[in-house]
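Preliminary data (for renewal application), DOR complex.
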Amino acid sequence: MPPTLTFGRPDDFHVHFRQGEVAGHFARDAQDAGFARVLVMPNTLPPIDSAPALTEYRRQIEAAAPGLRALMTFKIRPGLDRQTLADLRSAGAVAGKLYPEGVTTHSEDGVRRLEDAWPVFAAMEDLDLVLCLHGEHPDAFSLDREAAFLGGLSSLRAAFPRLRMVLEHVSTAAGVDAVLSSGPLTAATLTAHHLLFTLDDMVGGKLDPHLFCKPLLKRPEDRTRLVEAALSGNPQFFFGSDSAPHSREHKEAALCSAGCYTMPVSLGLLLELFESRGALDRLEAFVSRFGAQFYGLEPNPGTLTFEKLPWKVPSLVHGVVPLKAGTTLSWSLKSLQGA
Ligand code: DOR
Ligand code: ZN
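Predicted structure:
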């Protein structure tokens, strides 16, 4: 019998499902991958920034994937007033997402200066809504954008001491240190791709557009710190895939879109990583407990079992090339219990 690993049903605290018919496909992929809950990002066109839009988007997702619970976010606009924020919360929003202007997919309408959204952050603190941060400064050089944002993170921490904040898809050692020094109401999500790859994997030989994402993959020493954070057992660091599908045509193109479609492979890749570090016993907390704890949620009922059998990653999923397409991973999903 091949070895197996069973752990509590996981959460993915950062996903993109897009919109229209494909949103249902991508939501089902999350359910099929074994996730019980997902935090759904709001950078659709138009964005999710009102209670009716949020309610309708959740309805579409949960209709397509009835076994999946969609935790919803809204896009922060400087003009969002307290009533709209209260309505979003009543509609079930758990977090608002800050996109600085122009840093990633569909962020042209993002926030130019953090101060412009100060009243929104104040209201979110009062309403106990989590602030999810795309932590990149738009004016800095691409590789320095996260580091350039960290001053903003500490200003936010000082101005809003009760606001829970998440530095999404942390990609640098400096980002890890900033989270560590900000105390327990600041957390970070870590993606599988930032844990596994560096910039050289994308551009060191031939260009691999399927590794092009924002924030960019970084230096080996950054990746080392990210892996240490993921393995540390510190509940400030938990899993959020930033699974971000773009069609093959949009990736294998001039003006390639940023985003890695990792949903089908992220748990398998994390299993391989944690196993290679002799830390399989720490995987469950990272994917199934710390995020829920930060968001004030109970752990999911039920378990997921993987077995050590080769699994070939499909070359195309709904017109999207997933990360590690066509390669073989060493663990495969065996069963899902008690969901
Ligand atoms: O690579 C990325 N893709 N990073 C993001 O922040 C957004 C995402 C997307 O929506 O495609
Ligand atoms: Zn994202």
